[in-house]
Amino acid sequence: MTEADFLKAYDPAAFPRPSVTVDLVLMTVRGGALCSLLQQRQDHPHKGSWALPGGFVGPDEGLDAAARRVLAQKAGLPEEEAPGGWLEQLYTFGAPDRDPRMRIITVAYFALLPEDVLARAVKTGSGLQLAPLRLAEGEAIDAHLAALGPDGTPLPLAFDHEIILKTAVLRLRGKLDHSPAPFALLPKRFTLRALQDVHEAILGTPLNKPAFRRRLLDKNWLEPTGERESGTSYRPAELYRVRQQEKRSVAVQGGMTL
Amino acid sequence: MTEADFLKAYDPAAFPRPSVTVDLVLMTVRGGALCSLLQQRQDHPHKGSWALPGGFVGPDEGLDAAARRVLAQKAGLPEEEAPGGWLEQLYTFGAPDRDPRMRIITVAYFALLPEDVLARAVKTGSGLQLAPLRLAEGEAIDAHLAALGPDGTPLPLAFDHEIILKTAVLRLRGKLDHSPAPFALLPKRFTLRALQDVHEAILGTPLNKPAFRRRLLDKNWLEPTGERESGTSYRPAELYRVRQQEKRSVAVQGGMTL
DNA sequence: CTAATAGTGTCTGTAAGACAATATAAC
DNA sequence: GTTATATTGTCTTACAGACACTATTAG
């Protein structure tokens, strides 16, 4: 056994290497619901089921770079531009049988994008869909998550992508209060009410307005622009923007702004 | 470009696959300090520097299984036994140049083990060391982390292992209050004082005793055993144990008990 | 003016920090 | 008893939830 371990450790080419991919959970909030971009599989295995967009990691490509590349390809985001999104490594899934064709280890990322960006991606690509995610009550990791189709019925999910989606939703919930990530779901200038709507959609529960406002403003992450929203038939709300410094300040391995 | 992408996605064998390893941050608290097991490299590259124990992921081996195997090999833990530790996937590091020999993507795990288990591992193996970790003040990810040798000077760390260690420490700090993981650093029965010492070592700051006690007991994770510690020259403290149910209850992708 | 929402003030309950008082075991 | 620490009680402060009140804009 020690001999075998020795060989294993010092002659890695002696046994087959796994393929490594990145899979992306591209999320946004639309119509008060947290949604994820899914792509219908055209081939076996899991033909017809819905999968996360992904791609193989190139031989000289970093993991973040691969995630950005897939994001650009699938979501139609030019890599050089700054659409104001968020990208963060989520978790790595590597069960030996997660793909029936061969051994594939996937590094899952999640991205947050403004609604219009993802809506445009859906229209551009084919077999794409922005599916509302419905997570059963309770924060347990073994709770069931459904991605709903246009008719409100759950879509069949390919591979282990339900677990990946569930992990993403729970991670996002956990980070809501401690990370500037959720701002990536809104345009550059937004009202506090819109931000609260985003939080409520992600948590799936209503929040107290004065408390929410206090909490957010006390963090000092936002600054008022002096401008107001327009087009309302009632009192327009102040537009806020994220302080420049907060776009850099990041928690533990906290992801990156796009 | 679309053609190239197509080939990339559908003919993964057409380009070389990366090697995939697991690296383990094996931590414990000793002498009031958070320590990690490090192994001195016997070969180039980084010969003489100190590295995290790790190993290649086998062709039919899951990531968690690989981490457990390396844990058993390096820390001398029999895989079947239940020493009361904690194992959790940390983050995946895959910069193309992180290893000069070849492309290696590593899935980092961190483990928490009682002090005596790791101390035994250090004595058994060779070139092993349990190094106190000192993190510069401030939670910033770009702060410097040093692993101290026996003479108190920082050890040179191999590859990107400083970043991995830093990530582990920050992750552990963040989970302290929300996860039953820290209990893995103590024996099965322990006093609240010992638990507070562990928390203080990890956070690097003293805590308020009554508040700590209230917080922990209010979580209802612990139950008194009715027994007292022995061998003290003063009033012995009550011994607590973790409720059985809490060993299962786990937060978001929260790791596993050993 | 009315309608509708923005934004604020205030009360209350919960939980943490600080500090002190009491309890208990070894000697 | 003394000593050292466990364990509990209490005061104060900070903050979140609840609710109501005031402000502002369109029409």
Automatic annotation (TrEMBL), chains A, B:
Against InterPro entries, the record matches this protein to:
NUDIX_hydrolase-like_dom_sf (IPR015797), NUDIX_hydrolase_dom (IPR000086), WH-like_DNA-bd_sf (IPR036388), WH_DNA-bd_sf (IPR036390), WHD_NrtR (IPR054105)
SUPFAM superfamilies this protein is in? Nudix, Winged helix' DNA-binding domain
Q: What is the official name of this protein in its record?
A: NUDIX domain-containing protein
Matching entries from PROSITE patterns are given as: NUDIX
Query: In this protein, which residues make up the domain named Nudix hydrolase?
Result: 15-172
Name its species: Roseibium litorale
Matching CDD domains: NUDIX_NadM_like (cd18873)
